[in-house]
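Q: What residues go here?
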């Protein structure tokens, strides 16, 4: 569904992303993890075209991204950045309607199908009763779900999430990640997200991509990837790994910095 091959991204004379390659299958949830400054968010921005890539190949649903225009890419892929901001007088319903823009010509009005999709997105995210509320009046968790509803209304095949739990308390972090996983399973939506919490990555991901200084260190199932040795070499911390029976996902306990 999403194939990235030999992606290089540079700022001025500094290489931020170095020969990054990953293959995400349809319906998978993949988390990109790594230390601060390792290039996680930069990769997502490069994939969506928000920042230019020096070289590399990106394919979305078997289509080369460099052969598609912005509207075509937006029909296939949606990205939610950190700290999304809307006008103070915008309602939730109005925000979600922007998800339909890639599917409309500049002169076209919203039709019955668009409004049906908006209602569906509200319902799927549990935001139906918030339709007429101002986005600026929502709590952090509610606002994040409103933005997810907007992304759903776009009807993408691939959803990119840049640290979707930033600024949320523990309960709302789990609520948002549970919603993402539920949408992934029900809609077969392919999800690639940047996370900091290793246990969240372990619990909610089919695969984990670990990067350091812009390069892939390892990529695979959480139970294969998240080892003491890997975490020590990438993060510089000692951990205990609680490996549950039946090949379950590992639980990571951070002990101390090396």
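A:
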């Amino acid at each position: 569904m999403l194939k990235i091959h030999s992606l290089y991204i540079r700022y001025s004379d500094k290489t931020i992303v170095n020969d990054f390659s990953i293959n995400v299958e349809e319906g998978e949830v993949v988390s990109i993890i790594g230390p601060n400054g390792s290039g996680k968010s930069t990769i997502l921005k490069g994939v969506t075209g928000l920042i230019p890539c020096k070289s590399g190949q990106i394919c979305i649903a078997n289509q080369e991204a460099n052969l598609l225009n912005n509207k075509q890419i937006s029909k296939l892929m949606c990205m939610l950045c950190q700290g999304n901001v809307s006008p103070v007088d915008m309602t939730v319903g109005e925000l979600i309607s922007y998800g339909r823009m890639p599917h409309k010509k500049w002169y076209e009005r919203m039709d019955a199908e668009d409004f049906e999709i908006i209602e569906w997105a509200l319902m799927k995210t549990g935001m139906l009763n918030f339709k007429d509320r101002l986005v600026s009046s929502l709590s952090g968790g509610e606002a994040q779900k409103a933005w997810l509803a907007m992304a759903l209304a776009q009807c993408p095949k691939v959803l990119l999430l840049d640290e979707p739990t930033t600024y949320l308390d523990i309960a709302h972090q789990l609520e948002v990640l549970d919603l993402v996983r539920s949408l992934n399973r029900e809609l077969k939506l392919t999800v690639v997200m940047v996370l900091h919490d290793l246990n969240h990555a372990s619990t909610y991901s089919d695969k984990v991509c670990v990067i350091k200084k812009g390069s892939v260190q390892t990529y695979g199932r959480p139970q294969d990837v998240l080892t003491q040795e890997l975490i020590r070499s990438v993060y510089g911390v000692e951990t205990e790994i609680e490996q549950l029976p039946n090949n379950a996902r590992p639980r990571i306990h951070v002990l101390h910095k090396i």
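A: Context that may help when evaluating the design: The chain has a mean pLDDT of 94. The chain has one domain: 2-84+156-257.
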